[in-house]
# Entry
Amino acid sequence: YVIMLIHMILPMIVREIEAYSRALQAFRDGTPIGDSVGPLVAARLMHGHEWSDVAKEMVAAEVPYNGRTLIVTKAKGPGGSVGKPGDAIENILNSRKGRKKVDAVIMIDAAGKLEGEPAGGIAEGVGAAIGGIGVEKYKIEEAVKEHDIPMYAIAIKQDITHVVAPMVEELYTACDTAVETVKRMIDEKTKEGDTILVAGIGNTVGVGQ
# Structure
């Protein structure tokens, strides 16, 4: 029975070993990994705009878009860090007191895919798009609930062989699609004059501001 179980899970274990082996190369060379899709989308939105620190290893920039103001935040790159997105979002929302409040929050992160799905698929939904043990997710949900702000999610699908390994072409291309998805979502869900917080979640290795 034990041998049968090992035989069934061995292919998955081998895939994970190979992925983590490639991850060593990625972090050594400062190459973006699959989990960098969120920060890469945020970096493309904030590129060329002045940014500032908003929390531990987190930066943000104000970006004008179609009569709206985007506050784009991500982990501070290009080092290998995920930052503290919960603290960043909480600080940004609290800093708006007495000013124009944030009207919507959009989060972009990597997400697991089904075995038959292609890497780089885009899924849209609601709620906090963030993994981990739940601490940062709790902070984000509490902050958003306190300010009564709708929260939308964009997930870029991949599996364990992509998450920690150097970013493949399919995921790089998916980031372009995700940027357009963010813009479309902003156009559909908000109106001119609104302020939208866009958070790119994930490890920002190899991705600057």
About this structure: The chain is about 40% helix and 25% strand. The chain has a mean pLDDT of 92.
